[in-house]
Write a structure and sequence with these properties.
Arc Repressor Mutant, subunit A, four-stranded antiparallel β-sheet, binds calcium ion, about 20% strand, 2 domains, Rossmann fold, elongated, five-stranded parallel β-sheet, alpha/beta
């Protein structure tokens, strides 16, 4: 995880860098608004920690311009103790969270973790195919307005099919990646077929459009409509 820290005070910047690196984050420091703007544009970061009180181009200006240009990276702003207007302005300008200086380092870490989690939730932790949706955080699976109650194994199986949707999934792949059996010493074909049948009943039985299809002699494919 890469974090860009935009902070002009050398001591604070250095303390942040050391503290974050101790938590295994990769840290790049920018000491002016211009430099921060340049880095945020030129490189890819998972998060930006942005001090609002910067010489020259201040934090709000940097943030507003970055957001206007479409940057979606989460931004945590650092603001002075009683600058309430700054906080409001910061959030209005597209910051995701703020922290008031001086702050306790564990608090900063907690906020950073929360923002990184949130970022990932929006992007990756939800799988979809047609009206079928799987939330990997809450482990809730829905099709249309209907909640599907899956066993742990069915969930894993469906997750695998969703991650490989529109691709042929063989029984060998399921044996290796879902059942985690390295060899085919004990053929699992019957076990797999039984689980697929149960899963298909839950996913497809009540719906006109079928999602899980058997490709005879080869395996399975998850897609909208016949393969
Ligand atoms: Ca400052």
């Amino acid at each position: 995880m890469r974090i860009l820290v935009v902070e002009d005070e050398t001591k604070v910047a250095q303390a942040l860098k050391e503290g974050l690196e101790a938590e295994h984050y990769e840290v790049v420091i920018a000491k002016t608004g211009e430099e921060g703007f340049f880095y945020a544009h030129a490189e890819v970061f998972d998060l930006v920690v942005l001090d609002l009180m910067l010489p020259g181009r201040d934090g709000i200006e940097v943030l507003t311009t970055l957001r206007r240009r479409g940057l979606q990276t989460p931004v945590l702003i650092l603001t002075a103790k009683d600058a309430i207007e700054d906080r409001v302005l910061g959030l209005d300008s597209g910051a995701d969270d703020y922290l008031i200086k001086p702050f306790a380092f564990p608090e900063l870490l907690a906020r950073i973790r929360a923002l990184l989690r949130r970022g990932r939730t929006d992007q990756v932790l939800r799988l979809k195919a047609g009206d079928l949706e799987m939330d990997l955080v809450t482990r809730k699976v829905t099709r249309g307005h209907q909640v599907l109650n899956l066993t742990a194994r069915e969930f894993e199986l469906l997750e695998y099919l969703l991650r490989h949707q529109n691709q042929l999934v063989s029984r060998e792949m399921l044996t290796r990646d879902v059942w985690k059996e390295p060899s085919r010493a004990t053929p699992l074909d019957n076990v797999i077929d039984v689980h697929i049948a149960r899963l298909r009943k839950k996913v497809d039985q009540d719906f006109a459009i079928k999602l899980i299809h058997t490709v005879r002699g080869v395996g399975f494919i998850l897609r909208e409509g016949e393969p």
